[in-house]
Structures are given as structure tokens and as C-alpha cells.
Amino acid sequence: MKPSRKMEAQVVVIGGGIVGCASAYYLARRGIKVILLEKDIIGGQASGRNGGGVRQQCRDRRERPLAIASVKLWEHLSSELGVDIEYMQGGNIRLATNEERMEALRREGNEELEDGLNVEVWDRDELRRRAPYLGDVFIGAKYCATDGTANPILATRALAWAAQRYGAHIYTHAPAHTIHVTHGRVVAVGAQDGANEILIETPWVINAAGPWAPLLSQTIGVPVPVEPSRSVIAITQRHAPLFREFISSHDLGVYARQARAGQVHVGGTNIPARTFEQDVPATVIEHLARGIAQMVPALKNANFLRVWAGTLEMTPDKIPILGPVDQVQGYLLATGFSGHGFCLGPIAGKLLSELIADGAPSLSLHAFRLARFSSI
Amino acid sequence: MSEQVEIAIVGAGPGGLSAALVAARAGAHVLLIDHYRQVGGQYFRQPVLPVSLTTAQRQGAALRQQVLEAGVKIYTDTVVWGIFQDRVLGLYSPKGITYVQAQVIILATGAYDRPIAFPGWTLPGVMTAGAVQTLLKEQRLVPGQRFLLTGTGPLQLVLAAELVRAGAKVVAVLEANRFLARVLRYTDALWGQWGRLGEASRSWLTLQLQRVPYRMGWGIVSVEGARQVERATIAPLDAQGYPIAGREEKLECDTVALGYGFIPFNTLARLLGVQHVWRPELGGEVPIRDAHLQTTVSQVYAVGDCAGIGGARLAQLEGQVAGYAAAIHLGYRPTTDLAALNKAVEHERRFQKMYHALFTPPPGVYALSHDDTVICRCEEITQGEIRRAIASGAHTTNEVKLLTRAGMGNCQGRMCAHLIARWVAHETGRSLEQVGGLPPRPPLVPIPVADLGRTL
After folding, report:
1. Are both A237 and A142 inside the same structural domain?
2. Which of A103, A154, A209, B107 qualifies as a FRET site for B337, CA 20 to 30 Å off?
């Protein structure tokens, strides 16, 4: 098919989630001509559907420096973007219901302190004192005061709006369908914009298409080992302020955040799906209801108003694939965030912008290279 | 685990009752579910105390008796809050959460009122006509003293007459459409509708005797009051339904009933993945159905107002068609004369067509609100906030919801989604079909966490 419109860009970003929008924002801010292609709407998938947690604690050690650096960015995003994205450092409480979990949290806490992340381990009494709203099933917790929450829908949109102010062009309802590669180098991206075909000549492509990233990647011989996984969030009616921390328990399989407007978001299920279906089984709704009732007993009489699902993309080792690949020059992957993309989105975008503009990122991406899977 | 039934019918109004009767008489094992305490739906709505019944209430009570005698199992006070894989319905009742698995589902969920927004519409005393009627029919409660009825269609006449008979004062009935000049084009559609014509003329007579003003081509502009409705501003409307400036009048009243038609309640069908089409003349988005009223999802049928506003009579006929088809599918041999039934359906559809040609609200009635008027009542989102979201790039109703929280509250957008959609269409130049609605999300009604977590 002959393209009806030809364009040029220095970078084409594929995917209008938080990683793609942050990439477009930090690139455009550096004066780089960037075009972002989104198949549907900005933040329409996992970036706008997640629980809104922004946390550094309880990370894979390889991922921890990125999370710490990302929070430094989050702290200034509202003022930088000119939109109140409801970011708040209300703290993060990771709860334990048994001694084994408590011991694991202690070990992790020591490692985090070594890595420069300030965390506190609370015993039962300290937990009662600091978070009296929690159910008595918990025997202790680990707490990180600089962790927090933000509004996922607003944060992703605000990055896109700011990118546009710096000159980025964002096409929504415009799926990219072809990456053109010549002599091992990216040269162009083909996409559909409504009824029109567009061809964008570019030396750089960032594939930030989340769970959809492998589909396009395999067409240029770069298989990406991520699997879709369904995650579900339930939301209560507005409730008077109960807690400001992001609270989670692996033992119960539940996490929760109270948004500024008062509604409580409840998540914590992960259904390995291998499909992009997003229906919510009744058993999952019941699980979240039981979990939150145990976790925050005051919410027993609150109503669930709605549930929805989002699709995460999981890598075999649950940390992202971020940076260049050996097979194709100019092709950058930013996918496989395994449920950590909301917090890591800003730093991922910033590091890729540095890679393109400066030739090297300010933090090493070595641990996140695609090639780590080739030896498996 | 799940209770097993052959046919689950959601909604026990005229359509659901009729479907249940046909299928059960043919031998099928039928469960009829309704969220009210008594079957009947809005048309046959039964009073709490069964004394001095209206004609419709007597008919409804008789139909209920027949349905019970045919062996239909009835769950009242039971909401279907979700439909899951393999046609499992999630139920919520005073007993708690239970599940039913059905081989066939017949949706007969009816419709809800389509409110319009104008300055003051959130004041206590502004109600939908359907709400006033429910209070009258079920509770025998007259929710005010001085009523203003504004909207379109003969149901306004009927409601006004009911209010007058119940002892209320009706200060005026405002009809947005100047329909009289056009009604003669539809004599074939009216032929045989003696029951309806009789009810309309009886209502008309009642209003004439009480000297209730009936003003054709008029509509509401705004209402005022310190803590509740005290007076309304009304005006004659131009051909597009916009109030004509400079000709406003004030009316003292304490209750305003809005009768601007109905929106098909299609949420369960959409949750099931049924394909819909945009048919404004039928009230909005309606499911695609075959000749047996089966939707695009196998063994899921939709009948009555939830598949396109058509009234109680059409719902009963459609219910019989779907009940027949469902029974055949399950291997039973119903005795219904399908040819005669289809002929009656055709006749009713002519009336349906006439009704919508004469009584579709004109576009001007949706243009009364101002930028400071609250559109989403649950989340208190104004028209101005909605327009700003559209200006910042929201191209669909759902995107406006994401950016503003409009439609995220207790009613899940039943009051405001159609109003938001009109703004998105207006500001982006796209059609109502393109801007779409809000995706259905279970639970379809708010349910306490404690109940959801304690499955029976």
C-alpha cells in the first residue's frame, strides 16, 4: 500500500502508556523531534488502570536504583508538568501475617538500607500505633516514608500534554503496524491514522507498547519474552479519609490506596492470562472483597462500586526489558515492566532520552538488556 | 455452587412475565428474577397494599397468577449484579450473593428515565416522571403539592391525570413537540390501539375538567428555590426545541416531573458482549437481534424496552416470541401460534414508529444547562469541567469519565452518560454513535464489601 502521508521524526515512540508518554516528554524537552503513536487512547490500558502506587521498597535489587531515581522525578512532576497529578508521599506499608514473612521483610530492609533507601521495620505494637486502621491479622510491617501514590489517569495524560507543549506530536487511534529496517538499522515506521496510511522516517524507535510490544517486535526478528497477565482493581464508594499510605499484603493477596476524592482502590490479583481478554471473574471480586475487609475492617460496610481489569506484561524474571538490542540498530525496547511500569515510567523515559541525546544513560541499563534471556 | 436452570429471565415486567409464561407452559424450567419486591415492572407496578387496583394492576396481578401456576420460580428483591463466563448470573438479594447458571438467558430489563439538565435541576423537588409514577403506583404517595410536568409524549397526560385524581394540583403540562398537526399521518398505526386511545382521552378529559393547562410547544428553562423548588421558568420552544428568548413565564410549583422519554437498560447485554447499534428513534443503543429476538450472543435473548423503547404491549408480544424460541431450543413444543404473534408484533412496531416520530425530544431540550450546571450529580461535575476535558483531547464519553470522574459515581452514569455524550459529539463534531457510552462494570449496583466477601 502506498503511504498517503510521509513525515520525519528523530524518534518514534510506539505506545501511549506512561512509559511512552514519559519518553516523549523527556525527549521533546531536550528539543528532539518526537512522534508518538498510540493505537487507542492515552493511558487507556495498564497505565490508566493500575492501583496508583509509586514505591521504592520491596523491589528486585537490580530495579531498586531505578525506583529511587524515579521517585526523585515524581517529586517534581506536578509542578513541572503544570498539572496536579495527586502525587503524595504518604508512605508504603508492606504487611506480614506470619513470622516467615516478617523475617523476609527484615532481611530485605537491611539490604535496602545498604542501598541507601530509608525503611523502618515495625513490630505489632508499632504497627498498631502507626496504622490503627489495619486489621489485627497483621503481626508487623516494613514501612518506607518516601513512597507514595498518584492518580494514574492524570499522571499519564499530564506527561502527554507536557510533551505536546514541548513540540511532540501525538497520534491517538493510530496503530503502528510496520517497522522498516534497512541494513540492520531502523529507517521508518508505518502506521494507520484513521483512513490514512502514514510513513514516518526515523533513525530511532522506542517500542513501549506494553503487552503488545512482542507483536511488532517479532516482525523485525526481535522476539520479546513477555506474557500478558490480567490484573483486577475494585473501587469503593467515596469514604471519609481513612489512610494515606499505600498498603499491601502478599499473604492476603491484596493492596489498597485511598484516592484524594475518597474512593478506595483495591487490587492484588494477577491472573496469568496469555490473552488480552479483560473480563473479571466473580471469584476475583469476592477475593478482593474478603481481602480488603480483613485488611481495613472499617471498609466492611463500604460498597464496591465497580471493578475493572488491565493487562500487565510479565517477563520471566519480573523486571523490565529496557534499552537497545543487538539485532537492530536504533531500536529500543521499553516493555516487560511486570506491573512496575507506573512507578518506573518517568525514569525509564528519562534514561532512554539520555541514551538517544547523550549517547549513554545516567544509570546503567545493563541489567535490563534483552540479551539476558538468550542464555536461558 | 451455582443453581442450575434452563431459562433465566431478568426483569419481571410485561416482557419477562410473558416470556416466562410461554416457556414454562411448554414445560421449561424457568427462573424469573426482578429487583423489586413484587413482579410487574413499571407498567404493572403493584401497590404495597393490594386495594383499589387500576386496570393495569389487575392485569398484572392476573398475569403473575398465571405465571406462578405454570410453575415459574420467581426471585424478587434480587438484583443481577453481573454476568460471568458460561452464562452464570451473579445475584444479590437479602440472602446475600448467590449464582445461577442458565442454558438460556432472556433479558427483559426495561428502561430508565432520560433526565435533562437545566439550571436548578439538582434542587429537591425535581424528579423524573417515572419516579413520580413509581411512588404513586407502589406507595400511593404523592411527592408534592403543586406539580409542573415537562417533557414529551402521552405518558405525561396519563401521569398528570393520576396526580389530579390523587388530589394534587398540576399547574401545567408542557409538551415539547407540536405533534397534533402530524398525528393524522399515522392513522394506520393508531388503528386498533383502542386501549391506548381510551386511556389518553380519559386522561385528557380529567385534565380538562380540572382546567389543567396543556401547553404544546412549551418546555422548561430553569427552576429556582432556596432549598427546594419554588418556581419554574418556562418558555415556548422553536422548531428545534430551543426556548424562544423574551417569552419566558414563571410558574409557582414545588415539584417538577421530567418526562423526556426513556433509555433502554442494555447494561447486562453489553456486559455479555452483545453487539449493539445506535438507533436514536428507539432510545439509543439497542442490541442486534434476529427474528427470534436472539442477540449476537448465542442463547441470549432481549425483549421489550431494553431492546428499544416500545411500551408494555410490544414487550409482552416480544416476550412471547423469545419464550417460544427458548422453549424450542431446549426441545419443548410450545403451542403458541407464532404467525399470529409476529403479525401482532408488526402492528405494534408501526405504533412504536409513530410514537418515536412524534415524541422524540427535540435537540434544544439538551441545551438548557450552563457551564456551572452540575451534569454528573454523583460526583458533582459541572458542564464546564466536561467541556474543558473535551478541549484537552477527550474524544469519547469514556475519556471524559476518565479525566473528570463524571459517570463514576453511584448511578454509574445512568443519569449523565447521555448528556456527556451529547457534549462530546457537539464539541468534536462526531456522531453520538462514535463518541459511545460508558463501558459496563460489575457490580451493576453498589454492593457492600462484607456481602461480596461472604458467598453462600
Report:
1. yes
2. B107
